Amino acid sequence: MENLNLDEFNPTKFELTKLAEKYKSLEIKDIEDKEGYLIVDEAIEKLKKTRNEIRKFGKKARSKAIAYQKEVIKTEKELVAIIEPIELDLLNKQKIVDTEIEKRKRIEFLPERHIKLKEIKCIIDDETLLLMDDNEFMRFFNEKKEEYLLKIQEENEKKEEELKKEKLRIQEEKDSIEREKQKQIEIEKARKETAKRVKKEMEEKTIKLEQERVKQELAEKEKTEKNKKYIKFLDKNGYSEKEKENFFIQRDNNKIVLFKKIDEIIL
Question: Is the distance from CB of 45 to CB of 94 less than 8 angstroms?
C-alpha cells in the first residue's frame, strides 16, 4: 500500500486558509448593495468549486486503502471545515437578502392573498405570507380550502341531520296530537252513540210500558165490560146463586151458553 501523502491535496491547507481569510469578512450592506451581492456570489462560487475539488480528490484518494481512506476523510473534513462555515455563513447572508427581496416583491400581493384566505375563513400574519412564493401559497391555500370545505360539509351534514330530527320530532308531535284528537272524537262519538242508544232504549221501554199499561187498561176495561155483560146475561136469564144448581154454563172460547133445568120426575 502506498504511503499517504497529504501534500497531494490541491489546494493546500495554507492556500485554503488564505482563501477563507479573504472571503470571511465579506458583507452585503443592504438590498441596494448589488456590487456587494455579486462579490459574495462570486466568493460562494469560488468556495463551492474549491470544496468540490477537495471532495473529488478526497474521494479518489480514499479508494487506495482503508487506512489511507480514514486519513483522507479526516484531512478532508479538516480542510472543508476551514472554508465550509464561511460558505454557509455567506450563503445565509445571501439568503437573508434574497428572502427580503422576495418579501418586498410579494408585498403587493398581500391584499389579494388575504382576500382569498378570508373567503375560506383563514387568518394568517403578513410575515408568514411574505415567506411563501406563489406555488407555496397556492399549496397552502388549497390545503386550507379543502379543510374549510370539509368543515362546511360536516357542518351542513350535521345541520341537515338536526333538521331531519327536528322535522321528525315535530311530525311525531303532530301525529300524537292527531291521534289524541281522533281518540277524543271516537270517545265523544261513542258517548253520543251510547247516549242515543240509551235514550232510544228508554224511549222504547217507556213506549212499551205505556203500551202495556194501555193494553192492561183495555184488558181490564174489556174484562169489566165482559163481566157486566155476563152478569147482565145471567140476570136476564134468571140466574141466581140460590138457584145456580138448576143452571149449567157451557163455555166455547168467548161464547157462553146457559142451560136451565126445567123440571124433573122420578118414574
Answer: no
**Amino acid identity at 224:** T
Distance between CA atoms of residues 215 and 176, nearest Å: 56
Instruction: Convert the pLDDT of each residue in 88-111 to its tens digit.
Output: 998 999 888 888 887 888 888 889
The phi-psi region of residue 238 (left if phi > 0; otherwise alpha if psi is between -120 and 50; otherwise beta) is: left
Q: pTM to 2 decimals?
A: 0.42
246 alpha carbon, distance to own chain's centre: 116
Rounded Cα gap, residues 17 and 11, in angstroms: 10
Provide CB contacts within 8 A for 29, sequence distance 6+. 36
The percentage of the chain sitting over the pLDDT mark of 90, rounded to a whole number, equals 38
CA distance 99 to 131: 7
For 107, the 3-state DSSP assignment is helix
Q: Residue 29 has which C-alpha cell?
A: 450592506
Q: How far apart are CA 258 and CA 249, in angstroms?
A: 5
Q: Which residues contact 89 (CB under 8 A, 6 or more apart)?
A: 24
The Cα 247–Cα 3 span in angstroms is 186
The closest of 97, 91, 99 to 43, measured between CA atoms, is: 91
- Burial bucket for residue 104 (CB in 10 Å: 0-12, 13-18, 19+): exposed
- 78: which residues sit within 8 A by CB, 6+ positions away? 13
**Coil, strand, or helix at residue 252?**
strand
- CA atoms of 82 and 84, how far apart (whole Å): 6
List, for residues 39-48, the tens digit of each pLDDT value. Answer: 999 999 999 9
Contacts of 41 (CB under 8 A, 6+ apart): 94
Q: Residue 19 in contact with residue 11, Cβ under 8 Å?
A: yes
